[in-house]
Amino acid sequence: MTEKKVLIVxxxxxxxxxxxxxxRAFEVHSSKGHVRDLPEKxxxxxxxxxxxxxxxxxxxxxxxxxxxxxxxxxAVYLATDPDREGEAIAFDLLELLGDGNKDKFARxxxxxxxxxxxxxxxxxxxxxxxNKVEAQRARRILDRLVGYQVSPLLxxxxxxxxxxxxxxxxxxxxxxRFICDRELEIQDFQPEPYWEVEARFPTEPPFSAKLxxxxxxxxxxxxxxxxxxxxxxxxxxxxxxxVVRRPPPPFITSTLQQAAAGELRMSPxxxxxxxxxxxxxxxxxxxxxxxxxxxxxxxxxxxxxxxxEARSLIRDRFGKEYLSPKPRRFKNKRRAQxxxxxxxPTQVALIPEEVAPYLxxxxxxxxxxxxxxxxxxxxxxxxxxxxxxxxxAGDWTFKASASWPSFPGFTRVLPVGKLEDEGRExxxxxxxxxxxxxxxxxxxxxxxxxxxxxxxxxLVRKLEREGIGRPSTYAQIVSVIQERGYVxxxxxxxxxxxxxxxxxxxxxxxxxxxxxxDFTAKxxxxxxxxxxxxxxxLEVLSSFYSWFSERLEKVERELKGGNKPFRxxxxxxxxxxxxxxxxxxxxxxxxxxxxxxxECKTTRNLPANVKYRYRGGRVELAAGLAEAEEAxxxxxxxxxxxxxxxxxxxxxxxxxxxxxxxAPVPTGVTCPKCGQGELVERYSPRRGTFWACNRYPDxxxxxxxxxxxxxxxxxxxxxxxxxxxxxxxxNPECPTRTG
Length: 739
Prior knowledge:
There is one protein chain. The protein is an alpha+beta fold. It folds into six domains: 5-128, Rossmann fold, CATH 3.40.50; 137-188 and 453-560, Topoisomerase I, domain 2 (Orthogonal Bundle), CATH 1.10.460; 193-246 and 382-447, Topoisomerase I, domain 3, CATH 2.70.20.10; 253-376, Topoisomerase I, domain 4; 569-627, no CATH class; 664-738, Bacterial Topoisomerase I, domain 1 (2-Layer Sandwich). A hairpin with a 2-residue loop joins strand 21 (580-586) and strand 22 (589-594). The longest helix is centred in the N-terminal third of the chain and has 30 residues, at 130-159.
């Protein structure tokens, strides 16, 4: 009789894949995630006893079943994920299931789930990495101290109750501050005019050249206009050059999330969910296969065997000329943990077209993205040719250029964006000294634009650049600030809510370190040092808590003394006593309360999508509230009674005081697409307020800004207030937009 062997992973899906590989030689079980954690209803950390933590079993039935499975086993392999969280799960399993006989337990690391990789891991088992466990414990305790001690204070200050559900997190707070700061930049941005000058030459083919630099002085523009009218245009220099475009490194977690957002329109969270499925294994032609390597990594290192497979495939499919001269290896950034390889296909020979029939559409698209990116790393550079022309007109210089591809290289499998001048044409025969025909001059008046809001992918890029968070936390950070109601997505970008601004300012004033990127990045480095055995958990936690506890005590003292340590006053006067009203929180929403409370207990409802301007501890709401109360009157379609404006969870609407019928707020503007419906006001948590045809879903026309009237120029679109560009026509071919 063979000895019983048990292998434990944390995921049921991974367990099914490994069962298919190992057959009857092993019993494979799942821990279903973490088996121990800090208690939910208490802090669970004794700061006076060396930050000792109270770890409680999450699901006793799971642990009981695992105990039964390993009781008579000769060997138990702990094959949880090869990162800090996985190491902590392995340690907890060892502690809970060991029962004094820990010698039969071994740790195995599965960086990819293929039959060969699993066999190799089982043949070289190791021990649980206690330094990695210490780093995970320190991270969990830090997060608990911030979350469970700041969050109740935040609720108490803003809502008057400790358990209002407001949340502050060690890493999420910095991400929220980035978004709020960007919004304040946009809010206070003042556009500045500038001019660009373009000369269009009537050659064959015609071409355009631009004046170097841009002009900011209207008088300078007039002088230039007079000077160029008398100038002759002569070619000064013609130069040809080669443009080399090199493939990017293979994916790490952050770059995968960014690419999936840009190319596949996947959120970071969804990207990681699909990547987890591809890593843990899917059915392909009747066999379960792990299609990609571990997806939480900050390393661009790739195994030599995988590089060899990729180069063989490139040589066979595309020819030797498409191979890079030598194997490409990329350098990791400073402090990259390098515990895992880059994200790549486990078998490069499994081309996307062959596996797609066995995958869901999302799985197929993400696998193809990973496969193409990895294959491109071992392909030749893409080569372009560029011709640059310098043209003199008196004292001024104009520049023109054109580029075209000469050898696609890696772009055969990984499409790249066009160069700025790609596709342009220049006439033959341009050479120094050639006098050009008189051009048509165009003075283009433009204005500087505000910085753009962060997208989810852009926020991940910012977090990575600042050293905040780790591959395993990026998606969670982006998701949690939206789930808490601090940020909402509007037209693909992240915009802070008023609640988000208020929370950020409270933390900025009383716990400034929690919203400083340098401090948060330093904490991440300290956790890395613990993992590397260069720092002690107690030392790191003590250093943090020395200043953190002082901040907590200061706010508590002010509250006990009857003071308000933080408040956000508005420009809205109390209708009873005239004092400024302040923003308060109730059940996750905001309302206005008289700042003289409890002497004056007047309150006022605050619509969810009201317009405002936030200015550090003060919010301008009066104009937004006045606009929110304005709506064209309309009779009830059922009983004819004049309808009243109401505010609900999904924005403004009209309600009949007689029969209760409701209707969207009308605009009086006819839908330009169907010509039958009317554009009405709508609201969604994802898009905010927008305007759409009331014949939806038969007509899906929608605008991001308030419609004003049918465009008097083209008669085909409607003029509307665009949030970014001001008043414009909805018709992209309208002369007002193309001229």
